[in-house]
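Why should sequence recovery work at all? Because a backbone constrains its sequence more than one might expect. Tight turns favour small or flexible residues, buried strands favour hydrophobic ones, and helices have their own preferences. The token representation captures these environments compactly. In the example below, the structure is given first.
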């Protein structure tokens, strides 16, 4: 059984930074793609950033230039460094993982709250 365990959420002021981490526990398939999604109040879940096994990243336009996704394959961990946070970044952030083929994310974390507020 695979579990994705997130950490690093919290309350931050506008302009501040946060680093989220997600560790896959259990026998997760390798290679894989890991990603961060978020769901803000009254909004649908959206993909924020993803990273392939080789480290190739993707970012949604709203976070591009102020966020960095990275991974440590040996630790089965993915990170999301977010800088210059604004109120629109307030959301529950979820970690997801999938195999290399297709686009269906089979594994999800429980979510971690990020609140950006003065």
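From this structural description, the recovered sequence reads:
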């Amino acid at each position: 059984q695979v579990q994705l365990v997130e950490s690093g959420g919290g309350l931050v002021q506008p302009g501040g930074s946060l680093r989220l981490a997600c560790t896959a526990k259990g026998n997760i398939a390798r290679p894989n793609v890991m990603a961060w999604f978020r769901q803000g109040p009254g909004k649908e879940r959206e993909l924020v950033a993803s990273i392939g096994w080789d480290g190739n990243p993707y970012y949604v336009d709203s976070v591009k230039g102020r966020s960095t996704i990275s991974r440590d394959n040996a630790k089965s961990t993915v990170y999301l460094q977010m800088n210059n946070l604004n109120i629109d970044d307030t959301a529950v952030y979820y970690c997801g993982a999938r195999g290399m083929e297709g686009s269906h994310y089979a594994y999800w974390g429980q979510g971690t709250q990020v609140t950006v507020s003065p």
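A few observations help interpret the result. The chain has a mean pLDDT of 96.
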